[in-house]
Amino acid sequence: MRPTVPVIPGNTAIEKVHPLHVIDELATTKRFHLGEDICSGGYVGPSWFRIISGVAKRCVTLSSGRQQIVDLVLPGDIFAHPANERGALGVEAATDVTSVAIYPCSRLRRVGDVLAASLSAEVACASARRYQAHIHILGRATALGKTGAFISALAERSARESGQPAVQVTLPVSRYDMADYLSLSVETVSRTLTELKQRRLIAFLTPRTINIVDNEALATCGDAQFGPSEWQGHHSSLSPVGASPAKTARRMASASL
Amino acid sequence: MRPTVPVIPGNTAIEKVHPLHVIDELATTKRFHLGEDICSGGYVGPSWFRIISGVAKRCVTLSSGRQQIVDLVLPGDIFAHPANERGALGVEAATDVTSVAIYPCSRLRRVGDVLAASLSAEVACASARRYQAHIHILGRATALGKTGAFISALAERSARESGQPAVQVTLPVSRYDMADYLSLSVETVSRTLTELKQRRLIAFLTPRTINIVDNEALATCGDAQFGPSEWQGHHSSLSPVGASPAKTARRMASASL
DNA sequence: CGCACTGTTGATCAACGTCAAAACATGTGG
DNA sequence: CCACATGTTTTGACGTTGATCAACAGTGCG
Question: Is A191 in the same domain as A103?
Answer without folding.
Answer: no
